[in-house]
């Protein structure tokens, strides 16, 4: 495990050096043309996905801003890399923000809007209380506005930045992000609570929730693999540890040794501030390790454990123990998630500030 962490740090160090050189030399020709600023074939990590054509892109286009703002994707990548280098938790933060955006009114950046005098926005819903990374999106947006005013949507910035943040450890994009999304003008807290599944959800609830976004059981399983990075707060786990059925018991579907360990981290059932890694020892590395711990019944939430309660889902989860299979399937499912309910053409608007409707 230690060697894995060392490897990751090394990769991050190399990547950040690279971005530093790239950013410093932005007036000169950079080593690799964008499209990216990404190298190709470093000989490790998953392969690219040039051959995959999305089954459903919702009317999005590859490199939508090629003519209108040619450096848009490069700016997203450069600014994102800078932030990830100083905050390795950021990939987890951003991908969760994107999930919570796309599941409510589609990927329209509605999660980025601030509450107004009139209404409480998604951002301030309970389920979004722990979301972070908004400042990074704002930073990217202001860099892009300097170059092309009013052209690039916050919805595209969030989707691209998430891909770039998660991909940085591999030095190449892990999935495609066609662009052309427009920004929504409506954000309602109650819609977040209604559309985002809770960590206590059983399999039926999860499948129905994903189906309502045209996502399949395979998408549900693959995308749950995002829990290979990031942390969860103790209060979302305590029922499983202390009082599962109201008789002071623990969740029988949770590995008992792992439950013992978790109780050393989450000592007080009411603790809302302590966090635990969702993929212990590997929570900064985006890989398929989640499926190894899931198989050992160490998935942190009831919603993780639920993936083992259905034959089809369990079988697919076991297939994702194969790294190539995981990276391929995750890429496909992220492309689908990134296309949910997108606004295109003249729908919505291009916000001037991501936290505010124009
Ligand atoms: C299948 C339904 C899902 C449920 C029920 C669920 C539930 C949760 C819960 C309860 C947390 C902990 C939040 C906290 O303690 O602050 C969490 C964290 C997280 N979720 Fe999910 N999630 C689901 C799907 C997804 C998907 C589809 C993605 C992305 C593709 C994702 C990415 C993440 C990440 C990266 C974190 C860690 C965030 C951090 O470190 O701050 N989740 N999720
Ligand atoms: C949105 O809210 C955040 C946090 O409260 C604040 O920092 C930011 O300035 C707000 N955005 C605008 C445009 O007022
Ligand atoms: C509140 O709603 C009214 C009518 O729907 C609108 O004209 C006004 O601009 C809104 N105010 C704020 C602060 O959003
Ligand atoms: C799943 O959860 C829902 C909502 O709590 C509940 O109505 C349903 O009975 C549960 N299904 C199973 C199979 O436990
Ligand atoms: C799901 O697919 C149907 C049929 O193609 C479409 O009408 C609907 O808008 C889609 N829903 C979402 C959330 O993308
Ligand atoms: C455990 O749950 C039961 C039923 O919900 C509740 O009555 C009891 O107070 C809980 N025990 C603790 C220690 O929280």
TrEMBL record:
Residues of the signal peptide: 1-21
Binding, Ca(2+) 1: 101, 104, 106, 108, 110, 122
Biological-process GO terms, alphabetical: hydrogen peroxide catabolic process; response to oxidative stress; response to stress
Keywords in alphabetical order: Calcium, Disulfide bond, Glycoprotein, Heme, Hydrogen peroxide, Iron, Metal-binding, Oxidoreductase, Peroxidase, Secreted, Signal
Feature type site, description Transition state stabilizer: 96
Residues involved in heme b binding: 227
Origin: domain of life: Eukaryota
Protein's UniProt name: Peroxidase
Organism from which the protein derives: Spinacia oleracea (Spinach)
Gene label: LOC110803977
């Amino acid at each position: 495990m230690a060697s894995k962490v060392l490897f990751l740090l090394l990769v991050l160090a190399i990547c950040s050096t690279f971005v530093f050189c790239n950013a410093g030399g932005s007036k000169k020709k950079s080593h690799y043309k964008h499209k990216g600023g990404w190298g190709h074939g470093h000989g490790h990590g998953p392969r690219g996905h040039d051959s995959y054509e999305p089954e459903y892109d919702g009317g999005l286009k590859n490199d939508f801003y090629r003519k209108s703002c040619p450096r848009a994707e490069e700016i997203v990548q450069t600014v994102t890399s800078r932030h990830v280098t100083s905050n390795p938790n950021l990939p987890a933060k951003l991908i969760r923000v994107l999930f919570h955006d796309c599941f409510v009114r589609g990927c329209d950046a509605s999660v980025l809007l601030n509450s107004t005098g009139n209404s409480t926005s998604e951002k301030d819903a309970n389920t979004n209380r722990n979301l972070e990374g908004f400042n990074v999106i704002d930073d990217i947006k202001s860099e892009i506005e300097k170059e092309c005013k009013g052209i690039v949507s916050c919805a595209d910035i969030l989707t691209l930045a998430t891909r770039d943040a998660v991909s940085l450890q591999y030095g190449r994009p892990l999935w495609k992000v066609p662009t052309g999304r427009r920004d929504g003008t409506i954000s309602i807290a109650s819609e977040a609570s209604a559309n985002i599944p809770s960590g206590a959800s059983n399999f039926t609830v999860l499948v129905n929730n994903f189906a309502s976004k045209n996502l399949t059981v395979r998408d549900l399983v693959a995308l749950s693999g995002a829990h290979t990075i990031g942390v969860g707060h103790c209060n979302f786990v305590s029922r499983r540890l202390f009082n599962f059925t109201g008789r002071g018991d623990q969740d029988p579907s949770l590995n008992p040794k792992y439950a013992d360990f978790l109780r050393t981290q989450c000592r007080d059932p009411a603790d809302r501030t302590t966090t635990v890694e969702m993929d212990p020892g590997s929570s900064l590395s985006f890989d398929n390790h989640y499926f190894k711990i899931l198989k050992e019944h160490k998935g942190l939430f009831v919603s993780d454990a639920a993936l083992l309660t259905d034959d089809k889902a369990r079988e697919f989860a076991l297939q994702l123990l194969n790294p190539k299979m995981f990276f391929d399937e995750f890429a496909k499912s992220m492309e689908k998630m990134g296309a949910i309910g997108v606004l295109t053409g003249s729908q919505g608007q291009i916000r001037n500030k991501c936290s505010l409707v124009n």
